[in-house]
Structure formats: C-alpha cells, structure tokens
Amino acid sequence: MTAANCVTCGDSVALPEDVEVGEIVDCGSCGTELEVLGVDPAELAEAPELAEDWGE
Ligand SMILES: [Zn+2]
Predict the structure, then answer these.
(1) Measured distance CA(19)–CA(13) in Å, rounded
(2) How far, in Å, from the CA of 56 to the mean position of ligand 1?
(3) What is the pLDDT of residues 15-52, one digit of tens each?
(4) Per-chain residues with Cβ under 5 A from ion ligand 1
(5) Beta strands 42-46; 12-15: pairing state
(6) What CATH number should be reported for the domain whose range is 2-46?
(7) Domain ranges of the chain
(8) In which element (H, E) is residue 36 found?
(9) How far is the CA of 28 from the centre of ligand 1 (A)?
C-alpha cells in the first residue's frame, strides 16, 4: 500500500498499488481531488479544475 499526504489537509491518502501517474484520487478526509504526480515516491497535487477551454 502506497500513501501520500493530502496537499490540502495534510492527512494521509492511501493509493491503490496499481495507481498510475495522472490518476485522480479523492482525499478521504477533506474530499479534495488529488492528481497523482508520482508513485515512487508517491506525490500528490491538487487536481486542476476541469477546464472548459479546450481550444478550438
Ligand atoms: Zn485532504
């Protein structure tokens, strides 16, 4: 089991063993959506809001 700290509340967020970079996981404590930036070591960042501006 891999875990990383939520960037918003600092709580530990468990990651699936097969988690992949770019996946979005939810913090179980504060509900923030977190993007997986790295898996070894595990690193999380607050997921960007879904952009509606995808260009032309
Ligand atoms: Zn959190």
Answers:
(1) 12
(2) 35
(3) 999 999 999 999 999 999 999 999 989 999 999 876 67
(4) 6, 8-9, 11, 27, 29-30, 32
(5) unpaired
(6) 2.20.28.160
(7) 2-46
(8) strand 33-39
(9) 7
